[in-house]
Amino acid sequence: MRTRSLTAVLLMAVVMAPAFLGALTACDPQRVDKLEEGVSTEVEVRRQFGEPATVLTAADGSRTFEYPRQPEGWTNYLITIGADGKMSSLRQLLAPDNFARVLPGLDRSQVRQLLGRPAKMQRFDLKDEEVWDWRFKDGQSSHLFSVTFGADGRVLRATVGDDPRETLTGAK
After folding, report:
1. CA angle, 11 as apex, 7 and 14 as ends, to 5°?
2. Most buried residue, 27, 60, 104, 143, by most Cβ within 10 Å?
3. Domain span at 142
């Protein structure tokens, strides 16, 4: 029996991760269809979506689960489980109505609450700015929603552009 070096195994994992993550996000619509607000339980949510990346507990006892699909996917989900243990809300955050709420003056935590975890965060020291990117789909087209924060950690501007990964490869 052949043994593989750790380097070879890690390289394979890095190469295969985007395909694996892409397959997971492709299943999301089927997962969502199996859940019903006010009926589905936390156990059912975890069965469909797995362990959340983040769990936030509110004063009323409800908990919000974050399921980011960035950087390879085009969605970020927030699922709220009420104090009664039932799913009270399932939202896909990367949508035009949420993008429209990102206005100059918002701070990083407010943007994070609106859109979830970004696909990429990049610091530009000479300009004293930081840019966060989220990948999203508009029909069949892939785009990038970018938010630029100033030195004070507040939004300076938000822009939408083509997803460079799709543009460079010629895929759409």
Report:
1. 140
2. 143
3. 96-169
Residue ranges of the chain with per-residue pLDDT less than 50: 1-25
**Token digits of residue 11:** 């390289």
How far is it, in rounded angstroms, from Cα 19 to Cα 130?
29
Q: pLDDT digit string (tens) for 112-162?
A: 999 999 999 999 999 999 999 999 999 889 999 999 999 999 999 999 999
> Which of residues 92, 119, 137 is at a domain's end?
92
pTM for this predicted structure: 0.77
Q: Nearest Cα to 80, choosing from 58, 64, 104, 96? A: 64
Closest-CA residue to 74 (of 123, 115, 127, 32): 115
| Domain at 53, CATH number | 3.30.1450.10
Sequential DSSP letters for 34-92: T--TTT-BHHHHHHHH-S-SEEEE-TTS-EEEEEE-TTTSS-EEEEEE-TTSBEEEEEE
Residue with the two structure tokens 């919000």: 64
